Amino acid sequence: MDIESFLGRQANHFVKELIREGLNVKTPRVNFSKKIRKLTLIVQRNRCNHCQRVLDVVNFDHIDGNRANNSYSNCQALCPNCHAKKTRRK
Ligand SMILES: [Zn+2]
């Protein structure tokens, strides 16, 4: 086997691996930074952004539904109830 076809084979293998991983690996659950979460709670006065109830359990929600967008403007704090309702709507 010459070097070119050997490398070609390796590259093929590598691409196949990448595709397989890409298909299997779920989008990692990235989240908002500590700073953003803290700021969100302060701005919302520790209340749910939907029902305005005081939060004991806080769910941080991506407003636009895009988990890769972890900017402050995309962050809201919800109670588990409202968060579940929102998630179900999607
Ligand atoms: Zn709520």
In CATH, the architecture is 3-Layer(aba) Sandwich
Strand-residue proportion:
5-15%
- Output the structural class: mainly alpha
Note the overall shape. elongated
Helix content: 40-55%
Give the C-level CATH assignment.
Alpha Beta
Q: Biggest sheet: strands side by side, in what order?
A: 1-2
Query: End-to-end distance, in Å?
Result: 53 Å
E-strand count: 2
Task: Tell me about the largest β-sheet.
Answer: 2 strands, antiparallel
Note the run of SSEs as H and E: HHEEH
Bound molecules: zinc ion
**Uncertain stretches of 5 or more adjacent residues:** none
Supply the number of helical segments: 3
CATH fold call: His-Me finger endonuclease fold
Mean pLDDT: 86
Query: What is the total number of structural domains?
Result: 1
Q: Roughly how many Å is the radius of gyration?
A: 21 Å
Provide an overview of this structure.
The chain is mainly α. It has one domain (about 25-90): His-Me finger endonuclease fold, CATH 3.40.1800. It is built from three helices and two strands. The chain has helices at about 5-25, 35-45, 80-90; strands at about 60, 75-80. A two-stranded antiparallel ribbon has the order 1-2. About 10% of the residues are buried.
Q: Which tags fit this structure?
A:
90 residues, mainly alpha, His-Me finger endonuclease fold, 2 strands, 9% strand, elongated, binds zinc ion
Ordered list of secondary-structure elements with their pairings:
Blueprint: H1 3-24, H2 34-43, E1 59-62, E2 75-78, H3 80-89
Antiparallel strand pairs: 1-2
This protein binds zinc ion.
Please sum up the structure shown.
It contains three helices and two strands; from the N terminus they run ααββα. With 90 residues, it is mostly helical.
